[in-house]
Amino acid sequence: MAGLFSGSPKHEAPEPLEGPVVATIIGGTILWFVLFLVQLPFYGWFDEHGHIWWLWTCLAGGGLGLIGIWYVRRREAALKRARSEETDDAEPDHSPAP
C-alpha cells in the first residue's frame, strides 16, 4: 500500500469544471427547504418512529445552502473582477500623450 502514495503524480490534475454554480447551489437550497416543509406536517410520525433527525437534516441543508449561495456569489464576482482586470492589463493604452 505504501507504493500507492509514494512518488509524484504521473499526470497533472485536470482543470476544475465550471458551470452554472450559483444556479446549482440555489436549486439545491430550495430543494432542502421544500423537503423540510413537506415533512413538517408529519412531525409527530417522525418523532414516534425516531426519525426526527430527517426533518432537522433538511433544515440544516437549507441553512448551509444559504451560506453556500453567499459564498458562490462572492466567488463569481471575484472571478469576474479578475477577468476584467486581466483584459484591462492586456489592452494597450491608446490615450494621447501630453
Report on the architecture of this protein.
- The protein has 98 residues and is mostly helical.
- Helices cover 69% and strands 0% of the residues.
- It contains 4 helices and no strands.
- Helix 2 runs antiparallel to helix 4.
- The radius of gyration is 24 Å and the shape is elongated.
- The mean pLDDT is 87.
Question: Summary?
Answer:
This protein is mainly alpha-helical and 98 residues long. The protein contains four helices and no strands.
Question: Strand content of the residues, in percent?
Answer: under 5%
Order of helices and strands: HHHH
Q: Determine the oligomeric state from the structure.
A: single chain
Number of helical elements: 4
Largest sheet: none
Low-confidence stretches: none
Task: Note the topology.
Elements: H1 2-5, H2 21-39, H3 43-48, H4 52-90
Helix pairs in contact: 2-4
Comma- or semicolon-separated keywords:
elongated, 0% strand
